[in-house]
Amino acid sequence: MQKPNNRLAGQTAIVTGGSSGIGAAITKSLALEGANVCINYHSDQKGANEVADWVADNIGANKTLIVQGDVGREEDVDQLFEQTLERFGTLDICVANAGIQKDFPMHEMSLEAWQAVINTNLTGQFLCARAAIRIFLEQGMRPEVSNSLGKIIHISSVHEEIPWAGHVNYATSKGGLVMLMESICQEYAPQKIRCNSIAPGAIKTDINKDVWSDEEGLEKILKLIPYGRMGNPEEIGSVVAWLASDESEYINGTTIFVDGGMTCYPGFSQNG
Ligand code: NAD
Q: How many domains does the chain have?
C-alpha cells in the first residue's frame, strides 16, 4: 500500500463502482493522498460501507460520501455528481471505473448482453465524463489545489488493444473508450482538462474470480503475463493517485497500461 503524501489535499473525487475490487482500491489510494471521495456503488452497499469505514479508520472522518446509482442511467449519474457537489463543494477528479462482463461466443450473444455491457462500460463512462466536464467548466481553475481544471480517468483494459474472442461486447466497449478519451482530450485540453485511461491487465478481483480461483485457469492466465503473476487492485490505485496529481500534469490523452507486460504478446516469445 502506498504511503500517504497528500498530493491531492483539498480535492474531491468521484469513483464509480467504488465498492469492490479496483474501484475500492482507487478510493483508498485517493483518500490516502488527502482527497475527499464519493464512492458510487450499484448494488453492494455493504462493500461501499466497508470502504468508507476503512477510510474513516485509517485516514479520518468525513472524507467519504456513498451514493447508489447505475452509471448507465443519465438521471442516476446527474444525481451522483449533484450530491457530491452538495457535500464537498467542488469536484476535481472523476474516475470512471464501473464495468461488467457478459461473455458469450459472438453467434450466441443476445442483443441484451451486448447492450448491457456497452451501456455500463462505454455509455456510463460518457455520462460520467460529461457530468465532470460540465462541473469543471462551471467551477473554473482552482490553482490552490491543482494546475489542471479537472482530471478524468477512464478505467479501460488491455482489451482496448488486444482483441478478445468470446468477449466481443467487452472488447468493443473498451476499444470505444480510446476514442472517447482521446476526443475529450482534444476538445478540452485547451481549457486545461486532463483526460487519460488506465488499462489494467489481469488483476485479481471478482470480475475474473472464475479464472483465478481455478488452478487450471490460473495457469493459463499466467502464460499471458510476462511478469509471472496477476496484479493487485492496489497496483491500479497507486497509478490513479499519481495520474490525478500534478506530478503527471503533462500527461494528457493517453492510456497507461498496468499489465505486467501482457500487451507485449508473450505468445510470440518462443518464435511465435
Ligand atoms: P468488480 O466486479 O469488482 O468491479 C466492478 C464494479 O462496477 C462493481 O463494484 C460493480 O458493482 C460496479 N458496477 C457494475 N455495473 C455498474 C453500474 N451499472 N453502475 C455502477 N456501478 C456498476 O471488478 P473490477 O475488476 O474491480 O473492475 C473494475 C474495472 O476494471 C472495470 O471497468 C473492468 O472492466 C476493469 N478491468 C478489470 C480487470 C481485471 O483484471 N480485474 C482488467 C481490466 C480492466
A: 1
* pLDDT one digit per residue (tens) for the chain, 272 residues: 666 779 999 999 999 999 999 999 999 999 999 999 999 999 999 999 999 999 999 999 999 999 999 999 999 999 999 999 999 999 999 999 999 999 999 999 999 999 999 999 999 999 999 999 999 999 999 999 999 999 999 999 999 999 999 999 999 999 999 999 999 999 999 999 999 999 999 999 998 999 999 999 999 999 999 999 999 999 999 999 999 999 999 999 999 999 999 999 999 998 76
Residue bearing the CA closest to ligand 1, atom 10: 17
- Cβ atoms within 10 Å, residue 237: 26
Distance of CA 148 to the CA centre of its chain: 19
Name the residue of 153, 162, 207 to mutate for ligand 1: max ligand atoms within 8 A of Cβ: 207
Q: How far is the CA of 112 from the centre of ligand 1 (A)?
A: 19
CATH number at residue 88: 3.40.50.720
Let me know if 170 is a catalytic residue.
yes
* Residue located via cell numbers 475500492: 24
Nearest to 212 by CA among 199, 202, 225, 224: 202
Q: Is residue 157 part of a domain?
A: yes
Ligand 1: distance of its center to the CA of 272 in Å? 32
